Amino acid sequence: MIRLADAPHDSSLRIVDILGGHGVRRRLFALGFHKDDIIELDSKSILGGPVLVRNLTSETSVALGRGIAQKIMVEVVDKRE
Amino acid sequence: MTKENRYPDIIFIGQPNSGKSTLFNAIAGLKAETSNFPGTTVKHTHSRVYVKGKVVNIIDLPGTYSLNPSDPAEKVALTHLFSEKPDLIVNVVDASVLSRSLELTLELIELEYPMILVLNMIDLAKKKGIEINVEKLEEILGVPVIPTIASRGRGIKEMLDAVFKALEKGLTIAHIKWSRDVEDKIEELGKKLPENLPVVANKRFTAIKMIEASGLFADKIVKEISFSFSKVLNRVRQDLETAHSAPAYEVTAAERHNLAHKIFEKSSQVKRGRRTTFLDKVDEFIMHPILGYLVLIAVFLGFFFVIFKVGNPLEGLLLGPLDKLRSLLLHHLGRNIIFYLADGLLQGIGGGVAIVLPYFIPLLFLMSFLEDLGYLARAGFLMDTFMHQIGLHGKSISPFILGFGCNVPAIISTRILESRRDRIITSLLIPFIPCSARTTIILALVAFYLGPLWAFGFYLFNIILIAVIGRVITLFVKSPSPGLILEIPSLKIPSLKSMLQKTYFQLKSFIKFAWPILIAGSVILGLLQYLNFDRFINLVLSPLVEKGLGLPRDLGVTLVFGFLRKELSLLMALQSLGVRYQNLLQVISKNQIIIFTMFVNFFIPCLSTVAILWKEMGKKIAFLSMALNVSVAIALSFLFRLILGKL
After folding, report:
1. Quick check: A68 and B287 CB within 8 A?
2. CA-CA distance, B277 to B128, in Å (whole number)?
3. pLDDT tens-digit profile of A3-42?
4. I need a surface site. Which of A26, A37, A57, B127 has the fewest CB within 10 A?
5. A54 vs chain B: nearest CA distance in angstroms?
């Protein structure tokens, strides 16, 4: 289990847990991000900035700030070809 | 809202970017704006619309992701929905993100109000390889489903037919069952709802909302109404939490999420391995970690270049006739009180037409272009790192850009920010952004007398200053920013109609709010001038103006004018110094010009800005903002006087 912020770019990831307060969790749920969803990192901005996440389960893209990406725990499902 | 009229109420609701407002506009005309950036429809729009020979009340609610609000704009949506039962709910969804959108749909179905589902952007879904079986979806949800492409007007007629059919014949909507164990718990709670607790929609819905409200304000109210029920509620939550090893509100959200996904899979086919489109390639390029920033810089430089290229000549064109009209007035009326009042009125109206609008309209238009394209959200993503340096996050970028046009709509648009903390910081920083009126002064004084490079430097200094002030403010605010969670919509070619509508919508808040204050301020000025009040003000301010800033005493009054109307400072400066614009350097030096511009630019936000700050954020923030601006203006002008004096 790793933090989304440290996750590799070339793999599908499964959301294992969402840490953090009610506010952040509720907001993520509302945007269709839940436990067990399969996601991918799309691009990573320089200077420790936000990450761009594509949710393959609900087909949406969301930008997440660094702090929030550190609160999402994921595991690698498989490497993208 | 009372039901004094017999016209049916139809509520339009959907997630941000669902094209809800475009659809609404197709029916209601130029009434609402569309948005790609979550929640720019921050107020709900009421329209009484005459369609097909019938009158209906259409209420366009701000985009909301769920019925559990997290930002002020979303709260507007919910208060409305819960306060009174509408005759029909029109739920608009972006068909290309159907699975996620169905989560809100399911929540709305739980209300069991009459409702229809509009599958908007069905063309975009097809492009993404998603084929939706409309009949199947209708069957599963038990709700009429209408596919549309609102931007091209497709499906509008079918939607209206469905709306009227639903209004005439009525619809019976029933909720869709969740997992057995969760349903059991909800039923148990529903049965024990205390008599004196208002039931929203139905018992099941109310019970679910109770469970989801843990840690929220509503929880405290429940405790006050009935302590024994509050104990049952806590036990139900606990049972759910033990059974699912997750907080209760997550259990219900996950139920909807899973159900939505199942319904999506049953009703739709996704063709994998779709082609990468041209827009995908563009997207890769503009989101690139290095190239993306180069594009961003180019976009913003181009953005301001276009605004000045359009605004500057336009302003010149409009100011000429105004000046003529003024001298005509003077000629006919002489210097009596009527002239001063008429002149104030003219300057107030003219100031809006000739100074703000030439810059503001192009800015709004270009901004809605960037927004509809989907670039504004991407700029928010790219700027997030930098915004963090000043204690904010990427979402604040949109109010900031708006601020370059006029601070008033910029402050209103901070409603898109979820946390009050972020709203306060952004609202305190916006008055430091040079709006079109202040830009006029910078151009007329700094660019004209010292050269365009100086003006550019002034702008750059201004932006750095905002960053520094932001940094300092965050030192005093203990709680950290909640961080960026921003949907990145797919890139779309914007439609001209939608851009024009949005421009008009933002413009309305200037015309309705800022302009009347501007005109009133102007008339008051005329009166003050007539009463020779300016000499008195000059005397009072002379310690600051003469001793502190090293400027001619006559400029004192222009500062007061600056509060009423920023761009008037320039005009009044010339008047009180008694020189023509071209001869200004005969009376004051270049250094004095810089100090004067600096002071006027950062001094108290104009009256309209203070008023909107007061209205939106409260008295305390309005006064804090004034104090902050005055101290920064005095400190900076003083500092620059020292530095420039040494050179």
Report:
1. no
2. 10
3. 998 888 878 999 999 887 777 888 888 888 888 899 998 8
4. B127
5. 9
Element spanning B509, H or E:
helix B496-509
- B226 in contact with A, Cβ within 8 Å: no
Domain B180-270 bears CATH identifier 1.10.287: yes
User: What is residue B61's DSSP assignment?
Assistant: P
Nearest 10 degrees: CA dihedral of B43, B48, B51, B56?
Answer: 100
Nearest CA among B417, B420, B452, B179 for reference residue B308: B452
Residues A63, B292: C-beta atoms closer than 8 Å? no
For chain B, the structural domain boundaries read 9-169, 180-270, 291-646
Q: What is residue A16's predicted lDDT score, i.e. its pLDDT?
A: 92
Q: Which of B602, B639, B247, B237 is nearest to B435 (CA)?
A: B602
Mean local confidence (pLDDT), B299-320: 87
Q: What is the mean pLDDT of residues B525-533?
A: 82
Q: What percent of chain B has pLDDT over 70?
A: 91
Nearest to B599 by CA among B641, B554, B646, B571: B641
Report all structural domains of chain A as residue ranges with CATH numbers, in order of start.
2-79 (2.30.30.90)
pLDDT for the residue A30: 85
CB contact under 8 A, B246 and A35: yes
For the CA atoms of B104, B106, B112, B117, what is the dihedral angle to 10 degrees?
A: 70
Q: Which fold has domain B9-169?
A: Rossmann fold (3.40.50)
Query: Which of A17, A25, A60 should one mutate to test binding to chain B, selecting the residue with the greatest count of B CBs within 10 A?
Result: A60
Phi first, then psi, for residue B273 (nearest 5°) are 65, 40
Q: In whole angstroms, what is the distance from residue B113 CA to residue B116 CA?
A: 10
Angle at A39 between CA A36 and CA A43, to 5 degrees: 155
**Band of residue B318 on the pLDDT scale cut at 50, 70, 90:** confident
Rounded distance, CA B381 to CA B388, Å? 11
- Give the DSSP H or E segment for B414: none
The verdict on a CB contact (< 8 Å) between B394 and A60 is no
